[in-house]
Amino acid sequence: MPETSQPASTDEEIQASWVGEAPQLNSTVTLAEYDPEWPELYRREAERIRGVLGDRVVLLEHVGSTSVPGLAAKPVIDILLEVPDSDDENAYLPALEAAGYRLIIREPDWEKHRLFKGPDTNINLHVHSPGNGQTERFLLFRDRMRTHPAELARYLGKKRELAARTWRYIQNYADAKGEVIEEILGRARAAQYDSFSAAYAKHAATSAANALYDRPAIAGLAGDVAGKRVLDVGCAAGHLSALLAGRGADVLGLDVSEGLISLARKEFGDVARFEQADVTEPLSLEDGSIDVITASLVLHYLADWGPALAEFRRVLRPGGALVFSVHHPGEDWHWFDRENYFELELLDDEFELGEHRQQVRFYRRPLSWTFGAVRDAGFTVDRLEEPMPVDEVDEADPRMAGLLRTKPRFLYFRCLAGGE
Fold first, then answer.
1. Distance from first CA to last CA of the chain, Å, rounded?
2. Who contacts 78 (Cβ-Cβ below 8 Å, separation ≥6)?
3. Beta carbons within 8 Å of 179's beta carbon, 6+ residues apart
4. Distance in angstroms (rounded) separating the CA atoms of residues 317 and 230
5. Which helix (H) or strand (E) holds 23?
6. How many Cα atoms occupy the beta-carbon half-sphere of 143 within 13 Å?
7. Considering just the CA atoms, what is the radius of gyration of the chain in Å?
8. What is the pTM of this model?
């Protein structure tokens, strides 16, 4: 699977990636206000590139800040080009160089990335192969910026803050924007559930991993919830919320996807309440108002658990329980063939929802990181579980039954909020 995020670069890595000497900035970054001429500059370059490469162009898009109306940017036109194989430089590099383009960065070990400068316009021409992890990121982020003014304002504010600092290399500035970009991409991807919410709801209702493994394990760790106030974070289409409500809990389900919340209300609105909310933002709940929080397969979508865990701790009563499941760190490290178990990495995966295949991304991290995060947020780990599926799985899905009983899949925590 391709990686989709690039860790912050060291000086040595920056120098190694450049064809020649990497220029030093040693200054602040100058941002220009949005210029309506930028799209026209892209169109001119796109026409020239297509003329040079012809059918070797698989995809060509205007990306980056200059592609977003109203967004201040370095006045450099970012262009995304896919060719059949960007490692096969002989197939495209001579033609581009003959037209005046200049290769300045070569990163074959990171998404087969090459970067060219233009013959007469200040551009960054990013070259990748099909199936890379960057195309989706570029386009999703661009489209999110174009359609969500609040996200644009948030990103612009961060850009201005960072641009005022002094950076040795321009890449250092780009790396520093990574955190806010990942936050925005996370919300954009969550919103994508709206496009396949019905397929996901149908899948989650009956799949062995959800119905006969994850939900029973979460409910078991939640314990006796009769008469308790339960917050079901990342409730999706409401199946876990309904299960807990059926055991006597007063349940509020939260999810960032409007489509999933709509389905949850339609199917289970008579037994539980459902609201759209982003758990990376402050929750509209009073301090100490919740007895149990459940978070089924949610937290591994967040790079930083700090804000969410702080809110969970705030709204839980002293002694209240946080019960959550995440991808098993040993399984992710093995399954995705990662070299360093101890890294925090953003990975690609796919959901198979019947005939629908949906690309998703989540973070893998070592087990020690998880313990540290819950401890720092004021929780103690009461139980750590690697559960078995319920017996019904043998008849419902024998193949999955064998996998769930012999290979780690998810990891389960019951954590208790400290007293005042």
1. 45
2. 62, 63, 64, 65, 66, 67, 123, 124, 126
3. 303, 304
4. 11
5. none
6. 12
7. 24
8. 0.69
Strand ranges (E), 354-395: 356-364, 379-385
What is the bridge-based pairing of β-strands 123-128 and 77-82? parallel
DSSP secondary structure code for residue 109 in this structure = T
- For residue 136 the two structure tokens come to 């989706």
How far apart CA 89 and CA 265 sit, in angstroms, is: 53
Q: In this structure, are residues 292 and 321 in contact, taking their beta carbons and an 8 Å threshold?
A: yes
Q: How far is CA 8 from the centre of its chain?
A: 17
Q: SS3 of 249, please?
A: coil
Q: List CB contacts of 335: < 8 A, sequence separation 6 or more.
A: none
Q: Shortest CA distance to 120 belongs to which of 228, 44, 53, 61?
A: 44
Question: 160 vs 74, 77, 140, CA distance in Å?
Answer: 11, 18, 22
What residue has token string 């036109």? 77
Exposed/middle/buried for residue 419 (C-beta within 10 Å: 0-12, 13-18, 19+): exposed
Query: What pLDDT digit, counting tens, does each position of 28-85 carry?
Result: 999 999 999 999 999 999 999 999 999 999 999 999 999 999 999 999 999 999 999 9
| C-alpha to C-alpha distance for 65 and 124, rounded to whole angstroms | 12
**Phi then psi dihedrals of residue 242, to 5 deg:** -65, -40
What is the distance of C-alpha 409 from the center of its chain?
20
Distance CA 324, CA 417 (A): 14
Q: What is the pLDDT of residues 237-293, one digit of tens each?
A: 999 999 999 999 999 999 988 889 999 999 999 999 999 998 888 999 999 999 999
**93, two tokens:** 């590099």
Tell me how far CA of residue 241 lies from CA of 209, 293, 295, in angstroms: 17, 11, 11
Q: Which amino acid is at 200?
A: Y
Asked whether the beta carbons of 232 and 244 are under 8 A apart, the reply is yes
Alpha-carbon distance values, 58 to 49, 115, 259, 284 (Å): 12, 17, 33, 46
CA 315/CA 417 separation, integer angstroms? 10
Cβ-based neighbour number of residue 105 at 10 Å? 19
